[in-house]
Amino acid sequence: MNKKPGCDVVFYEAFEEEELSLRKLLDTSVKCHYTWKTIQESGHVEPPADIVSIRTQSRIPSSWGSSLRAVITRSTGYDHILPFIESSPAQLLAAYLPEYAARAVAEQAMLLWTALLRKMPLQQSAMKTFSRDGLTGRELLGKTVCVVGVGRIGSQIAGIAKALDMQVIGVDIRSDKFPDITYCSIHDAVSQADIIVCAASLTESSKALLSYSTLKKVRPGTLLVNIARGEISPSEDLLKLIREGTLGGIGLDVYEFEDDLASVLRGGRELSSIEDIEQMNSVAATLELLQCPMVISLPHNAFNTAESLERKCLNTARNVLGFIKSGSFISPIPGRRCPRV
Amino acid sequence: MNKKPGCDVVFYEAFEEEELSLRKLLDTSVKCHYTWKTIQESGHVEPPADIVSIRTQSRIPSSWGSSLRAVITRSTGYDHILPFIESSPAQLLAAYLPEYAARAVAEQAMLLWTALLRKMPLQQSAMKTFSRDGLTGRELLGKTVCVVGVGRIGSQIAGIAKALDMQVIGVDIRSDKFPDITYCSIHDAVSQADIIVCAASLTESSKALLSYSTLKKVRPGTLLVNIARGEISPSEDLLKLIREGTLGGIGLDVYEFEDDLASVLRGGRELSSIEDIEQMNSVAATLELLQCPMVISLPHNAFNTAESLERKCLNTARNVLGFIKSGSFISPIPGRRCPRV
Predict the structure, then answer these.
(1) B263 and B180 in one domain?
(2) DSSP label at B185?
(3) Distance from CA of B3 to the nearest CA of A (A)
(4) Residue B278 within any structural domain of the chain
(5) Rounded distance, CA B266 to CA A127, Å?
(6) Do residue A222 and residue A286 come from a single domain?
(7) Are A293 and A209 found together in one domain?
(8) Backbone angles phi and psi of B148, in degrees to 5
(9) CA–CA distance from A113 to each of A118, A230, A251, B274 (Å)?
(10) At B78, is the secondary structure helix, strand, or coil?
(11) Given this model, what pLDDT does residue B316 score?
(12) A126 contacts in B (CB within 8 Å)?
């Protein structure tokens, strides 16, 4: 695909409500094109505009670095575009969306752990025969939540848990940011937890942090919720932990190799076509996890409330308009050169 | 069925975990028989023991009044056995279980409204194709919850909502019990609410209180949760309100004519065999409600946590043992004669 004549920005992975909101904010002054597909699903070989905007599932081809002027990831995490940025010429600018959805994500985490504590999937299927066997859940009151990664989102999760009269233990490299949180090591924390919530950014040190060897130390029946990045809790490890009863339930909003998983689930790709054997095994394990009765899986949708969508689209529009007007972003990715013209 | 020789108590509607716990507490001193069936499903024509214990779905035949010594309803509500008690001889004693599950029920209400606000059923089905269209939910923060019936359970619901930074409006005949709650009339309350939670006891004045004519005054998209009694929000009215979009979602743990619904769902009874036309239409409407994407239905399970089950079984055992030892209950139904011997 060649550049669309007169098109300034192509938005990949744009969902219905997001497109609607962005059109209202941008369409009078900027030429935009929207698609729900990833770059890979779109089959684009060359950049279709000077600016491209993705969410978390597109991989920007490294060959686009020389002809693109700017990229915007419409997400708070930007680990997925760092490899592309680092291999690109210094004049390419990159933006992300800081802190637009912390409360929305924290509330989705709370929804997942409450649904797991109350065996909601079993309650719902028991409704078919109005049966009550095996549906005894547990109350939130007094339970211990271990929050792994106490940043913007993790601190909101801790706040919600405390408001619900739960105990909170934090795990973070920095234990001085939130003085009212009790911190301890990951190993001590998981062994005391009723619920472990992963809210960490994906970095070299958090990758596979919630592995089989870490989580096998939990008390049997402990619940795990991940609303951060799937790569922190590898799918094959989770499958083993739930099958052997070490974990009593898993709530997932994010998945390891999520872009591959999404293409397989959308039917555009066969599992066997995933070349990398490690990735294929992980996606196969995720597909099995989705079938487990005590696994609740949501489609990377924790950010998606009307309130956060409004902030997100406004932030996106401000970045686009700022770049077009002045050649710089209002929320550039930290560490990346940000020239003012 | 004749009385079981040497059997002191028959427990109807006993689910797996409940039977297990009651056996531990009672089986050394009392002869008990347990069944998951209702009295009607058991086909018992005469009382099988001096004491029978039910939950909310059995109807005690009025003919049993003269030969039974005592009944225990293992529920906090006792509206369903009042007609039987009132038509029975004065020496028949009756017990219920006060306040064993207020927190458990309040937490199930919170689970239901959070799941509805976040369109959880749609999120879960969208996971099949990893789609995100139409999944934009709303945040709890700042939303207004109208609690109808501010008693033991309603006040816990209000407490949880406030802890989550939501606004609370109470509706109750008595507006002086909880001074930190703002009360107003049902009509003013429903028109301001984002979420209406029914936590009222079933009485003549609460029956069909949340009818079509009351609820048509809500703002379009308002959510309704009922964890109290189905008769307060008639199924045919709810079906109309969700179909026309007046209600945006409904979370139900209880159902109108729940005993009939349960027998139909368990396959023991045909819908068309329900003689009363009003009851048949209501059950038919409930069955249609269960198919609506934005209706979450749970099998009258709000009370069912490990914590409340422990309190419930302990209370039940204390009533049984108290009656056998001294001929009186520790938690008799208020207004019923309670002789001490």
Answers:
(1) yes
(2) -
(3) 27
(4) yes
(5) 9
(6) yes
(7) yes
(8) -95, 110
(9) 9, 17, 7, 40
(10) coil
(11) 96
(12) 299, 301
Residue B341 has pLDDT above 60, yes or no: no
pLDDT in tens, B255-302: 999 999 999 999 878 999 999 999 999 999 999 999 999 999 999 999
What is the Cα–Cα distance from B278 to B276, expressed in whole angstroms? 6
Contact B338, B328 (CB under 8 A): yes
Scan residues 28-47 of B and list those with Cβ closer than 8 Å to A: 36
Q: What is the pTM of this model?
A: 0.88
CATH number of the domain encompassing residue B15: 3.40.50.720
- Sign of the C-alpha dihedral computed for residues A246, A250, A229 and B113 taken in this order: negative
Length of chain B: 341
Only one residue has tokens 């797996």, namely B16
Closest to A77 (Cα-Cα) out of A172, A199, A170: A199
Residues of A in Cβ contact (< 8 Å) with B159: none
Sheet-wide strand order for B9-11: B32-34, B9-11, B51-54, B70-73, B93-95
Structure confidence at residue A339 as a pLDDT band (50, 70, 90): very low
Same domain for A149 and A249, yes or no, is: yes
How many angstroms separate the CA atoms of B277 and B236, rounded? 13
Facing B301 at nearest CB: one of A135, A160, A304: A135
Shortest alpha-carbon distance between residue B192 and chain A (Å): 19
Check pLDDT > 90 for residue A252.
yes
A228 touches chain B (CB under 8 A): no
A310 to chain B, any CB pair closer than 8 A? The answer is: no
In chain A, how many domains are there?
A: 2
Residues A1-8 have a mean pLDDT of 66
- For residues B147 and B158, state if they share a domain: yes
Minimal CA separation from A60 to chain B, in Å:
20
Residue A292 has pLDDT above 50, yes or no: yes
Q: Does A132 touch chain B (CB under 8 A)?
A: yes
pLDDT above 90: percentage of residues in chain A: 90
Q: How many other C-beta atoms can be found within 10 angstroms of the C-beta atom of residue A67?
A: 12
The Cα B126–Cα B130 span in angstroms is: 6
- What six digits make up the tokens of A248? 């009593």
Residues A215 and A260 occupy one common structural domain: yes
Which stretches does DSSP call E strand in B84-233? 93-95, 144-148, 167-171, 182-183, 195-198, 222-226
B118 touches chain A (CB under 8 A): yes
Residue-range definition of the domain harbouring residue B232: 102-297
| A131 shares its domain with A262 | yes
Domain identity same for B287 and B314: no
**152-171 in B: which are within 8 Å (CB) of A?**
160, 163-165
Nearest CA among A255, A325, A242 for reference residue A70: A325
Chain A CB within 8 Å of residue B292 CB: no
